[in-house]
Design goal:
The protein is about 20% helix and about 30% strand. It contains 5 helices and 15 strands. It is globular and about 50 Å long. The chain is an alpha/beta fold. Belongs to the MinC family. This is Probable septum site-determining protein MinC.
Amino acid sequence: MAVTERSGAAFELKGRMTTLTVLRVLTPDPQVLLQQLDARLAQAPDFFDGMPLVLVPADGITIDTEALTTLAAGLRERRLLPVAVAGLSAQTAASAGLGVIPNLDEPRAETTQATAAERQDRPAPQSTGAARLVTQPVRSGQQVYARGGDLIVTAPVSAGAELMADGHIHVYDTLRGRALAGVQGDVNARIFCRSLQAELVAVAGQYRLSDQINAKLRDAPAMAWLRDGELELNAL
């Protein structure tokens, strides 16, 4: 049967920024990991649905083909989406239906152990672009990204929505969903909101889930920022 050609394009490639969560594997036993993961999922059963994951074995942890296959299958059963590994061979990754990310930037031990003064001496990316203003509600499933600048939202942010900014995030209403400031590494970025009900807040890669937020800050004006590399949450 002849294939009929059409004049229209068959596909289109578009660039889009997508958040990938790194799952650091601290044990060679996938069952131990999955049991502990079940406890975390029970705290926020809907938050992790469909979350793309990159699996990264910690230093000294060896994951063989069987263990990786079991782990990937267990994650998919829990409605997570493992997409790739780092630090493993392509053959091992392929056995579990995963790709390989060869140069995933992970914090090195000397960076983790650096003093606060040393961290302050290192130049950090700074947001220099114009702020992005959003005046309509941000609904579940929507992602709003302010590239190169701050994000200002004057309407409610629903559960399941995601805010991202290279700079600060200001929400002059209720903040649910996820808010990630300084996504390109700006450690001076902050998150401000009028009512904190977020599923996750993060600044320059340091994050806190809803169950880790002080109950006194729930439904209250709050600010998230980094102090000596650790995420802090304070009332406003």
